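Researcher: I'd like a structural prediction for the single chain below. Treat it as a standalone chain; there are no partners to consider.
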Amino acid sequence: MSTEARLALLLLEELELKGGKAKLKYLKVYRLISYWLGDEYARRIMDRLTSSGYISVKEGAVELLRRFKTDKNLSRTYREARELVINTYLTMQRPPSK
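Model: Treating it as a single chain, here is the predicted structure.
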C-alpha cells in the first residue's frame, strides 16, 4: 500500500473514531500531514477522498460519507500516522545515494 493510501486510511479511521464528523482543524492526522509533508500533500489526499466519495468537506467541516468499523483507538491511529509521516518526511529530505 502506498504512503498516500495508508495516510488516507488513517485519516478515515480518525474521522470514524470521532463520530464521522469533525472540523478540519481538529483532525490531528490531517495536521500532521500538513505540517510535516506540506499543505499540497494534505490537500491532494483530501481531494482524492472527496472525489472517491468517502468524505464531504463543506465550510471547514469534514463528514464521513461511508461508515465502517475499526478495531483501533485514537492513540494507536495517531501513533501510526506520526511514524508514517515522519519516516516519509525523512525519506523526502535524504539526499539520493550515489
